[in-house]
Amino acid sequence: MIEEERVYYLDNLGFASGVRLHWSTARQQHWLLFPEGALFLNPTAVAILSICDGYRSFTAISQILSSQFCDVDINQVQNLLLQMLKRGLLINKTP
Amino acid sequence: MIDLDLPLTLMAELTYRCPLRCPYCSNPTNYDSSRYRQELTTEYWLKLIKQAANLGVLQLGFTGGEPMLRQDLELMVETATATGIYTTLITAGTLFTKDRAIKLRDCGLDHIQISLQDSQVDKLNYIAGIPSYEQKLTAARLVKQLNFPLTINVVLHRHNLDRIEEILELCKTLEADRVELANTQYYGWALLNRDALLPTLEQLERAKQVVAIAQQEKYFPMGVVYVLPDYYEQYPKPCMGGWGRRTMVIAPNGDVLPCQVAASIPELNFDNVRDHSLEWIWSKSAAFNRFRGTDWMEEPCRSCPRKAVDFGGCRCQALLLTGDATATDPVCHLSPQHHLITKACESGQSHNSSSFRYRDRLNSS
Ligand code: SF4
Ligand code: SF4
């Protein structure tokens, strides 16, 4: 009964309700804030998450990142999005 | 000296007043005494919220008692929103009217947590001490209608553990985004009711399996948190993620504590926001420094490799059970006083009482 494998789609990702980016002036850091949690974000993670607007395909996100950074590691982008999706922080928005 | 982290979380206990009477309430048993009756004014809270943001706090929980009893809650949320801090309302749900819910949303409230005592109406009302089932369900639905993320918090004990599946089903029906299943912690009111609340081992075994399925099958998009029944564990919990390491709690009277139960340790004097800034209290106050790091520890913790993992467990539990706040948490099987826990569990197993001492006025001095 328990599925081991779940299929995740990395298109049209956006923040679930109650999830948001935050710049802490006191800490001089970017954080992702959500119910009972806070994740410190490095500059790459900020760049990735801030273009997850619910409308972009994974390809579009990769293209934007490649135009901003010269050495984009697609695997790393994929992993971050997958982690966020599994935790319910990102969701697939528009179909 | 130890490296001092910035606080991550502020728990704002706006009031200890509450329409409910849960027999495991975490408020001090003398919540009704003159010590707590003088609640902080709006001006103080607004100032404190700004101070907290400047100190690096990222999460702010409005709790109590019932925080919705404060009519200035909306103003506090608005002030917090302006700083960017993440705000959570922790409510029993009975005062959550549509009108206020909409105002709270418009003020920028981020997240709402509602407590459910049980899945069945008579059982829930029995624990809450007042009829509140319908109101809680209505509140939960309203939270979802207004597009807030919803956490449902359930305190687990002998009288509801057998319905854990049904409780999770109800949370699913209510479309909870997150569920917290917290086995009762035996401080304050819960300690007074320990014999009537302690679960059986079989109940805990089953609960563990049910929770594992809920987690694997992703019943809830943001997950299920299961707070372990520490009386039955080998090691204690890393209380508060370490004393004075992440969290500050402001009591309704303005006392600042490292943990919601810390007032149970009589040797500690808590500084008050009327006398000092939050920053000063976080870094300088004696209460916050008392159990910071590991230097204060005695054996067996002092030479234990787990001391940076669990920080010797809970100070309040150590004091309440052994009489010594610096002792190893007796929940730990290495504690010389671990027999206190074993005995309590045995005594709990042999009792079948369901008569509670409800949260009520103990003495009104
Ligand atoms: S535990 Fe129950 S009585 Fe205590 S504050 Fe919460 S709802 Fe009120
Ligand atoms: S002896 Fe102390 S530090 Fe070691 S596991 Fe037990 S409580 Fe934790």
Strand-helix topology:
The complex is a heterodimer of chains A (95) and B (365).
Chain A: E1 13-15, E2 20-24, E3 29-34, E4 37-41, H1 43-49, H2 58-68, H3 74-86, E5 90-92
Chain B: E1 9-13, H1 34-37, H2 42-54, E2 59-63, H3 73-83, E3 86-91, H4 98-106, E4 111-115, H5 121-128, H6 133-145, E5 150-156, H7 164-173, E6 178-183, H8 188-192, H9 194-197, H10 201-216, E7 224-227, E8 247-250, E9 256-257, H11 278-284, H12 286-290, H13 307-310, H14 315-322, H15 339-350
Parallel strand pairs in B: 1-2, 1-8, 2-3, 3-4, 4-5, 5-6, 6-7
Antiparallel strand pairs in B: 8-9
Helix pairs in contact in B: 2-3
The complex binds iron/sulfur cluster (2 copies).
One iron/sulfur cluster binds at residues 235-236, 300-301, 304, 306-307, 310, 312-313, 328-329, 332, 334 of chain B.
Instruction: Determine the number of helices of chain B (DSSP H or I, runs of at least 4 residues).
Output: 15
Widest sheet: strand ordering of chain A: 2-3-4
Spans of at least 5 consecutive residues with low confidence of chain B: none
Q: Determine the CATH superfamily of chain A.
A: Coenzyme PQQ synthesis protein D (PqqD)
Radius of gyration of chain A using CA atoms only? 14 Å
Distance between the termini of chain A: 27 Å
Structural class of chain A: alpha+beta
Strand order of the largest sheet of chain B: 7-6-5-4-3-2-1-8-9
Biggest sheet of chain A, open or closed, and with what strands and sense? 3 strands, antiparallel
Number of strands of chain B: 9
Radius of gyration of chain B: 20 Å
Report the principal-axis shape of chain A: globular
Question: Count the helices of chain A. How many?
Answer: 3
